[in-house]
Amino acid sequence: MSDDKTVLIANGQGFWGDSLLGPKRLVSEGPLDYLTLDYLAEVTMSIMQKQRLRNPEAGYATDFVEMLREILPTCQEKGIKVIANAGGVNPRGCLNAIKQVVKDLGMTGIKIGIVEGDDILDQLPELIKSGEEFKNLDNGAPIQDVLDRISSANVYIGAKPIADALDQGADIVVTGRATDPSVVLAPLIHEFGWSMEDYDKLAAGTVMGHILECGAQCTGGNYCGWRDVPDFARIGYPIVEAKADGTFTVTKHEGTGGLVTVDTVVSQIMYELGDPKNYLGPDCKSDFTSIQMEQDGDNRVKVWGIKGSEPTPTYKVSMAYENGYKIVGQLTYTAPDAVEKAQLAAEILFERVGMYGKEIPKEDRFVELFGTNVCYKGIYKQEQEPGEVMLRVGAKSNDKDLLNILGRELAPLITSGPVGVTGFAAGRPRPTEIVGYWPALMDKTKVHTTVTVEEV
Q1: At a CB cut-off of 8 Å and minimum separation 6, what does 232 contact?
Q2: How many other C-beta atoms lie within 10 A of the C-beta of residue 413?
Q3: How far is residue 83 CA from its own chain's centroid?
Q4: Is residue 46 part of a domain?
């Protein structure tokens, strides 16, 4: 392997629902070796689990499969490999859907790999008997508090099984709940032959993945200096030019919008960061305080010096559980006295619900008046009475019927409440399920991943 070998990795999806223009433009507008895509969040796994219960073939990111239909011919032509955690709770179902797309496109010789083993939902009783406690990392609560309501349970696996799939020649690799940086670290392990004990390099790859994982958020998206960002509409999604020694450059395709500077990259590095000296991942700990960077030309930031250390003996587990229902509706009140009228409307609403014989406790009520600095309450001073406010009002409860009463009583406020109201075009709100989040840890030795590679 040449010491000056460069591997180009881009991320075209920061979350399930990100713009399809990201991956489409990344593969068509410039050179690339790997396209990564991040679809999963904690609540997403629960949604996918419910989909699979209704349909055994569902439970993965269908957007990914349809996006592949558009970009796969270009990827094959340019030799671009695709890595995504789009498998959700059903990587094998995703594999079957991809195989059908390849056949529909009349393509051959495409190797598709899947990584399984992160989904431990069915194993929970056995794992608990073996001594796993799954205490809530946030409050120490015992898993027994929610055990009968858990709807999904997934381990954050690392990069090694993804790299193994690439070693077996996979052109497309699909995982379930791998960590976000793992999809970027894996091709580096594969391309450069990095050892799983070379923690400095694994940390460098982890930092690369962290910078890329939110897509355009490191190329000017969601950036405080937004006035300096050119051509937002055509913002370029991020690319790293990675070297075998762990150094890399963050950039984007030439001619695209957006901005890559030390400030935009640092803004993303600070995203979801706890202890900067111990950023925990399944493959290593990364010391974010060791990161060195400098501007290396227009829209180019060079990064080096990253230090890592041995990972913990545990995996993080993400569980979702059923936690009752919520309902939220809205009305708009206009001046004069818009705030006072909206506050009165909320009081009337909850009082009328109580007239049905069921009271919503005050701690379970939700009232916000947008236009009164609710986003900066107590921080940003309101200088004058707003000319209009939006009342967002709702509640949470295990009693779905109670919430339906609140939903029914919202519209009547228009004709039997304060004057100057509008904004009910969306119709009556309905209760929706609340998905609770339960983070925990478990022994790594009890998790067994498998890799399957099939050629179409």
Answers
A1: 220, 221, 257, 258
A2: 22
A3: 15
A4: yes
Q: Does 109 reside within a domain?
A: yes
The answer to whether residue 212 is domain-embedded is yes
Segment 178-221, tens digit of pLDDT: 999 999 999 999 999 999 999 999 999 999 999 999 999 999 99
Query: Same domain for 327 and 433?
Result: yes
Give the whole-angstrom CA distance, residue 266 versus residue 120: 35
Q: Is the pTM of this model over 0.85?
A: yes
Report the CATH number that the domain containing residue 411 is assigned in CATH.
Answer: 3.30.70
Question: Which domain, by its residues, includes 213?
Answer: 6-118+156-312
Backbone angles phi, psi at 368, to 5 degrees: -135, 140
Instruction: Give the whole-angstrom CA distance, residue 207 versus residue 7.
Output: 15
Q: Are residues 299 and 367 in the same domain?
A: no
How would residue 377 be classed by pLDDT, with cut points 50, 70 and 90?
confident
pLDDT score for 423: 86
pLDDT digits (tens, 9 = 90+) for 242-275: 999 999 999 999 999 999 999 999 999 999 899 9
Residues 418/346, Cβ–Cβ less than 8 Å? no
Give the separation between CA 248 and CA 150, rounded to whole angstroms.
41
Final residue before a domain boundary, out of 272, 296, 312 = 312
Q: How far apart are CA 433 and CA 455, in angstroms?
A: 40
Number of domains in the chain: 2
CA–CA distances in Å: residue 429 to residues 83, 408, 410, 411? 39, 8, 8, 10
Instruction: Based on the fold, state whether residues 165 and 87 are members of the same structural domain.
Output: yes
